Amino acid sequence: MFQQYQLPYASDGLEPIIDALTVETHHGKHHAAYTKNLNDAAEKAGKADMDIEELLASLDKIEDPALRTAVRNNGGGYYNHNLYFSTLSPTPKMVPEGALLAKINETFGSMDELKAKLSALAAGQFGSGWAWLSANKAGDLMASASPNQDNPISEGTGFVPLLAIDVWEHAYYLKYRNLRADYIKDLFEILDWAAVEANYQRVTK
User: Fold this and answer.
1) Is the pTM here over 0.70, yes or no?
2) Which domains does the chain have, with CATH numbers?
């Protein structure tokens, strides 16, 4: 059974960047629904015992088209939100170090250039979707964007997300209204690079 990520901070812990009502609605309702619907669909597809990353990487093995779509959408929503909420913190590490920072500088030129790239991808995603920093087993980095609840795993890129920027309107609209770019800029103030470093180590070990 797939378990929803439980927040280690209170619903108002990310204020003033993300307000308590947004967290309660986003995590308590949207993310909870993705988790429930994924469990239902995975059970029907006979895939409930799989790891979520393995499941998203093998969607083509689900023969029933309706179940495949349900697992893709709800599995993506489950995975993407687990990652999103787990890399935000009231007391974030503001800058990575070590191997991840070195690779960021090598790939993008600097942290500022990476942030600018991710911000542009997130702001430029038409409609609902996500922006990602991802890595592959060799440690290479990739910045990308995906529509809806897709991600680099379900897209078959061979990369695994390290951080996620959610640009579905439910992630920001209660506070930021139509000012998506302001939300994206502010989100970096609560992005915990310690969590991103841990993800990088897990992907590349």
Assistant:
1) yes
2) 20-86 (1.10.287.990), 98-204 (3.55.40.20)
